[in-house]
Amino acid sequence: MTASTSNHSPAVAGRGTVGAPVAGVIMGSSSDWEIMRHAVAMLDEFGIPCETRVISAHRMPLDMAEYGASAAKRGLRGIIAGAGGAAHLPGMMAALTPVPVYGVPVPSRYLRGEDSLLSIVQMPRGVPVATFAIGEAGAANAALHLIACLATTDAALQEKLSAFRARQTDAARNMAVPPPG
Ligand code: RP5
Questions:
Q1: ipTM over 0.95
Q2: Helix (H, G, I), strand (E, B) or coil at 11
Q3: pTM given for the model
Q4: Which of 40, 83, 161, 166 is least crowded, fewest Cβ atoms below 10 Å from its Cβ?
């Protein structure tokens, strides 16, 4: 797999420099980009070609339906969907496609993203959305989870993931706090 472009405009449709995108990163508004860019950065780090799009569930319902209907045919293996407030996008996307959907609750202005989290995580039985933490960590972890799924059939990617984990372990082992006094 090849590294995708580093052009981080939220309106960019395709990021993979070579090969078709295997991951979609979609969000309800350009205002979600500050959170969702952490998913794209992680996919970039692992060389996963991805595409990004703003698709608002309530403002662009027909575009949302079209994206969902074409996702599998276009070769997407996972869709990371972020939204804030009454966050319908991940659940609706999961209803529109068999491609796994990874939901990222974006912090909202008044309820700090607790509304987004509950909107995404409380899917009724039968149409799952894998739901991650509110904010940047959730966006990065959604990408890592998608990468882990892809790595089950890609030994080279599995090695990259193991190396990533090992670096985190080393960094934690080297952490220090100031001495007493
Ligand atoms: C949701 O409403 C978006 O996902 C975003 O988190 C929130 C605010 O959208 P904007 O008013 O910034 O476009 O649809």
A1: yes
A2: coil
A3: 0.91
A4: 166
